[in-house]
Amino acid sequence: xxxRWEGPMLEGALVRLEPLGRxxxxxxxxxxxxxxxxxxxxxxxxxxxxxxxxxxxxxxAAAGKLAPYAQVSLRTGRVVGATAYWxxxxxxxxxxxxxxxxxxxxLAASAQGTGVNTEAKYLLFKHAFENWDVARVDxxxxxxxxxxxxxxxxxxxxxxxxxxxxxxxxxxxxxGLLRDSAMYSVVQxxxxxxxxxxxxxxxxxxxxxxxxxxxxxxGRERPPSPIASGVPTRAPxxxxxxxxxxxxxxxxxxxxxxxxxxxxxxxxxxxxxxxxLELKCAGVEDAATLSRRTVPPSTLSLLGxxxxxxxxxxxxxxxxxxxxxxxxxxxxPENLDEAFDGAVPDxxxxxxxxxxxxxxxxxxxxxxxxxxxxxxxGTDAWRGKVSLRWVLIHMIEEYARHNGHADxxxxxxxxxxxx
Length: 419
Fold this sequence. Notes:
It is a single chain. Helix content is about 40%, strand content about 20%. It has eleven helices and ten strands. It is globular and about 65 Å long.
């Protein structure tokens, strides 16, 4: 474009998006100092890097490439992260945008799961479609980043596929490597339905925030967990089993389509189960707690479940359906329970388990997205010929079973309950 690009200030009930300026530097630095465990597949500046980060974003804005924002929580008044419009595409010979991307998004740990992301996306979508009259808004993320993908899907964006070796990897330790990118969009035709769903969600979030404000103003606090162990959690623990485990953001697990084609329904249900596993492990930061066998005499642990399900994903999608020679990562004929027995309190074991699980999930999602239909089949030594349809159903069953185990294990760790 060649001219400075700056979006207007956008404000909702939970968050205010302020055009980024150098006066936001100290607030962003404080946000960047919070727990960084959720940044596995994206680059977020550390506190000392924030000044240079702000300068770089402002330089891109001056070149017309990006319209950056600071995200400010209206509950606390603090800067809690950043986001941006970027990659504007223009009509030929015109200065009107027909498409933009929403990206460069990150939130402090304390703002994750609070509804800030949902409302920020709503404000950005609304302005792009209703003020700039764009035909399309893009979003993309590392194909391995299941948490980011769940957040994108929760705001109504449609998955369009995975582009292999699409861009440089922003994952720590992957300098010089390329990543596969999961591509999403909302187009103008989608916006009315997407807007209605987002507004319904935001109404519920605002009512919840109103109840929280009332609780705070009355001086009443939720009682501590009866099995409190000092384990940090990403959100206040639900008190009832019928509450959402990680409310309100985890509601996205239950906002998928309830009608439609078979592939969409099955993949959405499986994604919800995978996300539930991640949520049941969220907030359990240390290896000792993640590997605790809390329901004796069972040897199951949260870490063991992650290791086991990585092997389950690998077996059905990589070995059976793709026909690869890929032996299990965490078990052997000599010890079929090694996934659980080897779930020891070692940070390296934890990191390897999550890396393997995410890699196998990403492979499975690519295979499903590229399959011509659900009748694609492979041969399993146990079940014989199996179709992709059967594997998806079986995987939903497998995760549902083990998420029930995770319910009990997590409750024994810190009292956390919920859907």
